[in-house]
Amino acid sequence: MERLSISVRGIVQGVGFRPFVFGLASRLGLTGFVRNLSGSVLIEVEGRQEKLECFFHELQVHAPKLSRIDDIQRHPLPTVGETRFRIEASDPTPHDQVVISPDVATCDACCAELFDPRDRRFRYPFLNCTNCGPRLTIIEGAPYDRQRTTMAPFAMCAACLAEYNDPRDRRFHAQPDACPECGPQLRLLNPAGETLESADPLRAFVDEVLRGGIGAIKGLGGFHLVCDARDQQAVDALCARKHRDQKPFAVMLPDVAHTERYCLVSPAEQTLLNSHQRPIVLLRMLGDPTGQALASGVAPGNPYLGVMLPYTPLHHLLTHEVGGAPLVMTSGNQSDEPIARTDREAVLRLGGIAAIILTHNRPIHVRCDDSVTRVVANQELPLRRSRGYAPQPIRLPIECRRPVLAVGGQFKSTFALGSGRHAVLSHHIGDLDHFAAYRAFEIEIGLYEQLLAMQPQSIVHDMHPDYASTGYAARRAAEQRVPLLPVQHHHAHLASCMAEHGLDEQVIGVIFDGTGYGPDQAVWGGEFLVGDYAHYRRACHLRYTPLPGGAKAIQEPWRMAVAHLLDAGCDPSIVTRNSVADPVTRGQVAMVEKLVSSGFNSPPTSSVGRLFDAVAAISGMAARVSYEGQAAMQWEWLATGTPEDGSYPFELADVVDTRPLVKAIVQDLVRGTQQRVIARRFHSTLASIIVEACRRLRTQAALDAVVLSGGVFQNALLLEETCARLEQDAFRVYRHRLVPPNDGGLSLGQLAIAAKHYAAPETH
Ligand code: ZN
Ligand code: ZN
Ligand code: FE
Fold it and tell me: How far does the centroid of ligand 2 lie from the alpha carbon of residue 181, in Å?
């Protein structure tokens, strides 16, 4: 007889790991115990040597689907001579590196029970098991146990308790386990927050929605607003009441088969749709959806539709009850404030939008928006990493020797906590210039620190002096006397892409972005950097043009158009000729000309995002937009599906001169070239600029690794063409697959830079 102590680190809590260990040990006739520590699982097993080896092997090979073993250690112990194997109570003392599991979509076994009339959980909207259910959104403290979740007030009934204690059961130690007898219940509210008595709240809700009404429904990480996606009136009303012109809505459909009525679904997209993260996946819409047309307001002018499949039992019941009708499912908020989480917030903020509110009495502790993703060249390209993904740790390429908080940027904000090899990125917080989002940012940093039992010893932030996150970092650093580490925006983008690929070497970083603070006070965003985590240099960038009116130019792309036209020596009045739907006057053009010539409130910018804006507006679309990047997105849509058709000239030295490109576009317009052809040529031109610049840097710096980051690389067409052409040219090309290329990925890059900074011997 021998005895082994085995310590397992990684995603091992809240994923059915202990029951799995129990089952495995019991099957092999081993004795001992398994115990959750914060951040790891400790196992001691005793038995014959070959059985122990078998145990150690199977532990790694057959670990539960949702678990991830990052590190496993074993050492021999003296034998004890127990008679059985047991699961021990959790050790509540905090240790380092706690791992909190993301929420997991309802598993197949639970789904089968949900629709089985003989099952005791038939149509029960809160069923779950060790393989599925809420995690992050209900957790109040670590380690993960029922009494530290929002399920604590629900005492398990005898039947549930029996399952919970039965090692052979799928619900063995499933912390949020519940049934209709003992668990949460649905409740229907009117917009004033008064309870509506109903024998079947779900049915009443569905009736309202199918009648053309708007409903609010409590989900996993917050409330959604729901309406029938085929109902133009309902969709328009939702648009108007949400104050959200032109931004597309996501749609929930019951399954892939229903999705294929509206969209093309590739095998990779199907996998993502069905994944346990259940993100919103952007899919190409079919040209002519036969008799199933969606209201045009769902995704106006957009060739893509954001689709997600049901991920809670309530969603499954809902999509079933509406007979597979496509449902708009959009975050329960007005414009960009945080998603409503409590009934109070729902009534306060959504009462004016929804006619009916379907809620329940299982509190949401952590608010969490849906994730958004797409597939580019057969690989996932995350656009928003949130519910289902956060807070799954990402492995850092460098050990983070002290606990670090990275506060990210200002827009599409996420923060991250780093310790050891773990980078824990938060869910999506939103744009911090909204006060409510900023408050959520502050509160949720506190929450994550508590959950992960982490006290940051350093705070890393963007160099931008006016970002709310920078202000937060400065205040906390002063209060708690911890060092600050400022990081340049595009250096963080570069590090973010490097980190997710585990790179630790010098690379060429192509960072095409909207805006970021440059140390020379200019607005950067079209950068070719050479560097690593420790250092970077700006090897090449797009030619500076003025940003007339500063932030105003982001909402009004025609301003950028005027700036670029003047810079290229073209007549800026072309902007007034082309914007038929949304006219720009000669007076306005003259005003911007004056701004540009005086330099007043017109900082120089190298932003590629703004170049997209300018070119789109010059060509007569999107003179004004309702959200940043809208013009660029419409420009991508136009070019998508248009065959390749040459490209425009540019000049490349230490600066990329875009003036020949702008001139050539104006000539194309004069010739009457179609917009979509211009858009396609523009994309090819950007890809050519990247390839040419990278070739130059390869010769100069003897580097062949290229990372592509920055918000512009959300553009599938540009990303795909750039990757293909760089790879043809024998570059090693790295693009985002785990975190978004936009500012949602900044916090990871900041952490990696901090890890390197504090790993360097000279800083000790
Ligand atoms: Zn399940
Ligand atoms: Zn029960
Ligand atoms: Fe950025």
Answer: 5
Which ligand has its closest atom nearest to the C-alpha of 16?
1
CB 736 within 8 A of CB 381: yes
pLDDT in tens, 686-734: 999 999 999 999 999 999 999 999 999 999 999 999 999 999 999 999 9
Output the CA 37–ligand 1 centroid distance in Å.
Answer: 24
Distance 106 CA to ligand 2 centre (A): 18
Other beta carbons within 10 angstroms of residue 211's beta carbon come to 11
**Among the bound ligands, the one closest to the CA of 161:** 2
Q: How many CB atoms lie within 10 A of CB 482?
A: 19
One-letter identity of residue 756 = K
Question: Poorest-confidence range of 226-230, 579-583, 602-606, 690-694?
Answer: 579-583
CA torsion 574-578-584-587 (nearest 10°) is: 30
Query: How many A from CA of 215 to the centre of ligand 2?
Result: 29
Q: Convert the pLDDT of each residue in 119-144 to its tens digit.
A: 999 999 999 998 899 999 999 887 77
Q: What residues does the ion ligand 3 have nearby, CB within 5 Å?
A: 513, 516, 743
CB 202 within 8 A of CB 260: no
Angstrom distance (rounded) from CA 497 to CA 690 = 17
How many A from CA of 492 to the centre of ligand 3?
A: 9
CA 253 to chain centre: 20
Measuring CA to CA, which residue among 13, 11, 20, 9 is closest to residue 90?
13
Predicted TM-score of the model (pTM): 0.93
- Measured in Å, residue 178 CA sits from the centre of ligand 2 at 5
Find the 715 Cα to ligand 3 centroid distance in Å. 14
* Strand segments (E) across 667-753: 705-709, 732-734
Q: What is the rounded distance in angstroms from the CA atom of residue 274 to the CA atom of residue 280?
A: 11
The alpha carbon of 249 and the centre of ligand 1 are apart by a number of angstroms equal to 29
- The residues placing their C-beta within 5 Å of ligand 1, an ion, are 107, 110, 129, 131-132
Token output for 627: 């959200």
pLDDT digits (tens, 9 = 90+) for 546-585: 999 998 999 999 999 999 999 999 999 999 876 666 788 9
